[in-house]
Fold this protein.
Amino acid sequence: MVPSLAGVTFIGYKTPDWSRGLGVGLSTWTPTIVINTKDAGTAGAGKGTPMPITLSPTLRSNLVSSFRGQGLIGTSMPIFVTALASGLRALYLQTVTNTIHTGVAVGTGVATFVPTAAVSHLVRGFTSVGMTGEGPTKMASAIASGLETTFRAMTLTQPIVGPANSSTAVGTGTGSIV
């Protein structure tokens, strides 16, 4: 996050703490996001090929809406949110899906994401670096809302690999982000 924020001149003595707190919160929240898939292919049981998480371009507008909803407005908010969205996209490109598929051994699944509530994770992350009070809580709420909305609307094509079979089948899969 620091390079993204510095890239738009959001540089201050608390920027590293803020970034670290956000990272702590996201590292505990992200694995709780459930991935569900609807699969088609050959019969059996397979494993999803790890796929990078590419956050939707709607992330920025979702963050803008949630920042406004928390009253976090001002002339620098759009620039800050742009940097935040850029940093989050770069962060999530370093994560991948981890899925198991029952019913389909080789094929493809359409993955949807079911995010859990993120705000408590982000508040704990900010608290871990000494950021407490109304401001950090509103910031955590805004970021949580924007991310949850973005993940709920996302889909991903999930390749499935396993033992080959000649029978066709449909099934479901489940997993998480690692």
